[in-house]
Amino acid sequence: MAEDNRRVKIAQLIPWLEFEEDYPENFPTEMGAPAKSFRMALRALIIKEKLGISDRKTVEQLRENPALQYFIGQSTTYSNELPFDRGLLVHFRRTY
Questions:
Q1: What's the pLDDT tens digit per position in 21-61?
Q2: How far is the C-alpha of 86 from the C-alpha of 34, rounded, in Å?
Q3: What torsion do the CA atoms of 74, 15, 57, 75 make, to the nearest 10 degrees?
Q4: How far apart are CA 42 and CA 32, in angstroms?
């Protein structure tokens, strides 16, 4: 993606490695699926807040929009699958 893209600029402001180290501890593997990355969760929350939409609508937008999928770190190919359950955003907000 281009360096002057607004989402690329936002992503460059955040010290990802500092957060990635401690983040998985909030999702014990015996409780279910392994944690999605901190980057994915925070970027999804940024999308939600920028668009002013609900958690449910955020997940729907992520499923439908290839540019948003790229922003949260999914592969470079479009996927019609939900990237995660909307509950991830709730848990992320409570934790951070």
A1: 777 666 666 656 666 778 888 889 999 999 999 999 999 99
A2: 15
A3: 0
A4: 20
- Do residues 68 and 47 lie in contact, with contact meaning Cβ atoms separated by under 8 Å? yes
Q: Dihedral of CA 82/34/22/74: which sign?
A: negative
- Beta carbons of 20 and 55 less than 8 angstroms apart: no
Q: CB count, 10 Å around CB of 35? A: 19
Tokens of 48: 């939600």
Q: Say if residues 59 and 90 touch (Cβ distance below 8 Å).
A: no
What whole-number distance in Å separates Cα of residue 11 and Cα of residue 8?
5
